[in-house]
Write the structure tokens for this entry.
Amino acid sequence: MKILVVKLSSLGDVVHAMPAVQDMRAALPGAQIDWVVERGFAPLVARCEGVRRVIASDLRRWRKAPLAAQTRSEWRAFRAELRAQDYDAVIDLQGLTKSALVARAAGLSPAGKRYALGNQTEGAGYEAPTRWVADVAIRIAPRIHAVQRSRELCARALGYSLPVSLAYGLAERAGYAQDAIKTIANAVALVHGTSRADKCWPQAHWVELGRLLLAQGHSLGLPHGSDEERERSERLAQALGPQATVWPRLDLDALTSRLAQCGGVIGVDSGLSHIAVALGLPHVQVYNFDTAWRTGPLNAPHQQSVYAQPVPSVEAVWDAWQRVKAAA
């Protein structure tokens, strides 16, 4: 069976779709699974076990200049790649107009079908064209975790029972090394950066937490993905001392590999924190909004979320870290 998964963005959403691929692999041995994703996330999807081919999309860039000659040329090439294979199932896990457009452009076998979400679920974006394009629109319970939504949609589309076990299949690169980086098992990465300012945790809280971790014998890693985050990493390192290291700016593939070598991660609600969950690392995820039920760590005692408003206290995050380490 040949299956095309359409999940374009964003980083956390892409990670949340990975268990559905592992379910399909277990239920349908020998299935060929391809995945369409935004180019920036393609290296991560390439690490997902069971994905045969990653088809990179540049929709985010194309929509800035939809009528440009370069856009039209690149779209034609992208569409040709989508149609190079006839799929038995095209599954739109995104539920947006852009993903419906991609699903519609994909090649379909004579008996093939396009599947999509039939309704909006709580906290998730949804646009009607996704069900207009689909041959089969599947209604999902409106209040459901993002991981379970993708898993259930695929299981119902392809006719298998949802497995009890949960796996992401996010493979580690063999032989990863970088001379400038020395990773050790007691390193804890502090993921302080996120796409929304209102998801951030106060800098003073990070300093206090960092000092507790240092006193426990941990070293600290400070990743960043923007100039603003780099500046925050540098301020934190200055406050915490030589055992707190500002990581170099890394591409997504290298960043995932570096994160995988840490002993644990504490982070805000961000794509990098969701990668930590997928890697199976001991992890505490910090939420300023009551959305952990939808995107936070799922059914793993060594991975927990902490929620409070306006922000969780250092004590609450520290207590969660102690529980996580005890369970790891």
